Amino acid sequence: MEAALLYTVTMLTLAGIYAALTLGLNLQWGVTGLMNFGVLGFVAAGAYTSALLTAVPSGTHLGGFGWPWWLAWPLAALAGALLALPVGAISLRLRADYLAIATIGIAEIVRLFVRNEDWLTGGPLGISGIPRPFEDLGQPWGAVAYLLLVAGVVALLYAMAEATAKSPFGRTLRAIRDDEDAAKASGRNPAAFRLQAFVLGAACMGLAGAMLAHFFKFMGPDALDPVTATFLVWVMLIAGGSGNNRGAVLGAVAIWAIWAATDWLAGQLPGELATRAAYIRLFLIGLALQLILLYRPQGLIGERLPR
Amino acid sequence: MLELVNFYLIPGLVLGAIYALAAAGLSLAYGVLRFAHFAHGDLMTWGAYAALVAVGALGISAWVALPLAVLATIPVALAADRAFYGPLRRAQPAVLLISSFGVALMIRAVVYFVWGPTPQAYARGFTPPLVFEGMRIQQRHLMILAGAALAAFAAHLLLSRTRAGRAMRAMADDPDLARVTGVPVEGVIRLAWAVSAGLAAIAGVFLAIDTQLTPNLGFNILLAAFAAAILGGIGRPWGAALGGLLLGVAEEMSTYPLLGGAPLLEPAYKTGVAFALLVLVLIFRPQGLFRGMG
Amino acid sequence: MTLLVARNMTGGYGEADILHGVDLTVAPGQVVVVIGPNGAGKSTAMKAVAGLVRLRAGSVTLEGADITNCAAEGMVARGLAYVPQERNVFPSLTVEENLLMGAYARPAAAREGIGRAFALFPDLVAKRRIAAGSLSGGQRQMVALARALMLTPRLLLLDEPTAGLSPKLCALIFDKVRAIAAAGIAVLMVEQNARPALAIADRGVVLTMGRNRAEDSGAALLANPEIGHLFLGGAAPDEADAA
Predict the structure, then answer these.
(1) Is C242 a residue whose pLDDT tops 70?
(2) Do B109 and A280 touch (CB under 8 A)?
(3) CATH number of C7's domain
(4) Which of A254-263, B98-107, B274-283 has the highest mean pLDDT?
(5) 8 A C-beta contact, residue A198 and residue A36
(6) Burial, C94: exposed, middle or buried (Cβ in 10 Å; 0-12, 13-18, 19+)?
(7) Are residues C96 and C22 located together in one domain of the fold?
(8) Of the candidates B87, B98, B282, which has its C-beta nearest A98's C-beta?
(9) Same domain as C179, residue C113
């Protein structure tokens, strides 16, 4: 019974973290039309920032500084934003596909950096001993409390994203996405608006990274991979309905449920077959994305424009 | 000096030749189809593993298996186009780009499923390098350079001297005008996929000969291929090939211990050179690089 | 027998119709000029004939064969060549390669076609190896015309061939249009330079708001005071020619 509860809580927590990522990507791609294929880079920036600030002191990496999480998380969001700033400033005035390539590049650089700068990140060993908020409540209540914290953060991000979408700022972003020339003609500077959206989205990703690191209580170069940290988020957003925050959250939960369920199913298979089943799952997620693009391009919930 | 040539320049040229083939195929697909094809790296991987099957089944060398790898890769690109890209022909390039990202995952999943994650090689054993007056060059490097030059020359002839090549360049210039001029657009698109996938397969096999086969073989150099394509002006295969050569040499040279004993750049960051160059190009020459395929 | 018969052409881009039942007829060897204010649907009518705009109703026949909504890429083989208003050459291809593209559907006819093209536009001979994108506007228009003539179509559609050209070049293009018609190739063209175009036209068609407004011989339309007032700027013919 308790194992089942713990499993459910774990899955819901991860779904919540994905919802934060998807909301960030929705601001970038759904609302503004910016293609970020390097979500992983911003997640890593936030995860490592929070990990270093909160972990117990260790000889294998810089710090840790033993800060409380509530002080570190805003800085994790800031780290994501700071990483996005130069990338955005360089590539946002260019075409959409160049940004996609540049963001893959930044994710690659971040990956190289955390793997090789041992003094800072612990290199391949990573950072362990990251405290999880509320863990002194014991199990399962500590996990439940952490889930509530994640849910609270997601609710906050959702509320902010909704407010943004309805604000003049959000309307301008959509106007730029749909018709850049018209937006320019009405005296707005698309590059500045795009940069703000890109940076805000990256801040969401940084925060999600922090939540992930504290949930795992560990962060290392192999804890994040492009498939789960970037591709899955894209599938979630497109499945849910890009441009729509409710769709983003719904897509995150739905796709995560499928992902986790198939993971569990694959785990029931014996040995070699279980690893192979994971590849089938990868294939099917790719196929699902194609089918959504072909037959339901607006996603589960299409974009509904606020008045 | 010889050390520079043997350990930096020659490997740089070899890597550059592989980048050149990859980037030329990528650029051609971009020119005709007008979207960044993110599954190009995985087409390379597919070609490399197809050659592995031929090597294992027929007992031939990877060089001889090259045409078979090309033949095995072209249908994958055509199938992806038919099933996924074709119905999205009128969609925004961004949608096609995302779709190709999905195709990349699907190809990689199949590679993992069939061949597993363990690195493999075409052949074992050691061939001594050829030595000319202190210049040492691996036989496989010589063959990769020659093979890449041959493939690039063939692609160049196809594009510049044949009716189909002219049609591809015309499509890259102006697809609507090509249509009213009587070019069978879908046929030309299929041909472009075939050439692009063929070049990808050759690049993949060469890369696997030089290193080893892993399911991420092609994806790992996708960023470099894009950087090379943008460097040479995306949509222009010839420029992309030059960009690739430049990038390969730059990447290898970047670790040369020019100042005292320390390398210019820690070798671990070598793959970051592609990105750094990409950023420089994006800052200083983003425009002027993408008109047509001349 | 009439060469082109377009009846009741109705359609446009997406939801809204631009054409509301446009009729166009062209006899062999004729020059027919379509005039009208901006937004009248002149270019859309040309595109509809060329297969680039889908018609919801109406029909287009070429030499009695139904070509309504046929694929644009098959029109060249049916004897219909279309020159769009803008972007009508392949900029990175050389002049000669542009001409060869015109013969894509029948490569065997390329050599002969190039000979005829250079005879009609001798200026292009010296430019044959130059990228079409680096030519002047007038030269590009010539390349576009020459490319469309490569397979000797029976009907040539021109969308504002003189747009943006100097009066001297306009006169040259109109001369070429007459020469093309004299060789037996009918020309259907949209023109903003209405007076000089009607002056060389066998027939003129006036479109407004996606409908036929008037149709007569070119000379009769020029002489019609109402048409002159509404669509030819109302100015005296010689003044308008100079503009």
Answers:
(1) no
(2) yes
(3) 3.40.50.300
(4) B98-107
(5) yes
(6) buried
(7) no
(8) B282
(9) no
pLDDT category, B239, cuts 50, 70, 90?
confident
* 3-class state of residue C181 by DSSP: helix
Print the domain residue range for B255: 2-119+134-284
Tell me the one-letter amino acid at A222.
Answer: D
Report the number of distinct structural domains present in chain C.
2
pLDDT tens digits, B49-99: 999 999 999 999 999 999 999 999 999 999 999 999 999 998 888 889 889
In this complex, the residue of B97, B222, B271 whose CB is nearest that of residue A35 is: B97
| Most B CBs within 10 Å, among A290, A291, A298, to test the B interface | A290
Contacts of B271 in chain A (CB under 8 A): 108, 112
Helices (H), C110-236: 110-120, 137-148, 167-182, 194-200, 218-223, 225-231
| Cross-chain Cβ contact A293/B98 below 8 Å | yes
Please, are residues C174 and C143 in contact by the beta-carbon 8 Å criterion?
A: no
Strand partners, C82: C157
Q: Which chains touch C (3 or more CB pairs under 8 A)?
A: B
Give A202→chain B minimum CA distance, Å. Answer: 19
* CB spacing of C50 vs B173 below 8 angstroms: no
DSSP letters for A137-172:
G-TTHHHHHHHHHHHHHHHHHHHHHHHHHHSHHHHH
Which among A91, A283, A294 is the nearest to B110, CB-wise? A283
CA distance B146 to chain A (A): 30
What is the pTM for the complete model shown?
0.89
Structural contact between residues C174 and C197, judged by C-beta atoms closer than 8 angstroms: yes
| pLDDT for position B78 | 98
Closest by CA position to B226, among listed B4, B15, B37, B73: B37
Q: Looking at the partner chain, which of B180, B184, B185 has a beta carbon nearest the beta carbon of C50? A: B180
Residue C214's domain spans which residues?
1-79+153-231
pLDDT of residue B283 exceeding 80, the answer is no
Q: What is the distance in angstroms between the Cα of B261 and the nearest Cα belonging to chain C?
A: 48
Choose, out of B82, B282, B285, B291, the residue to mutate when testing the contact with A (most A CBs < 10 Å).
B282
Residue range A109-121: mean pLDDT, rounded? 89
> Is the ipTM of this structure higher than 0.95?
no
- Within 8 A of B173 by CB-CB distance, chain C residues are 90-93
Same domain (yes/no): C91, C209: no
Residue B25 has what pLDDT? 95
Distance from CA of B113 to the nearest CA of A (A): 6
In a domain, B125, yes or no: no
Which of B275, B283, B284, B285 to probe by mutation at the A interface, max A CB count within 10 Å?
B275
- Asked if pLDDT for residue B206 goes beyond 70, the answer is yes
As a whole number of angstroms, the distance between CA B148 and CA B154 comes to 10
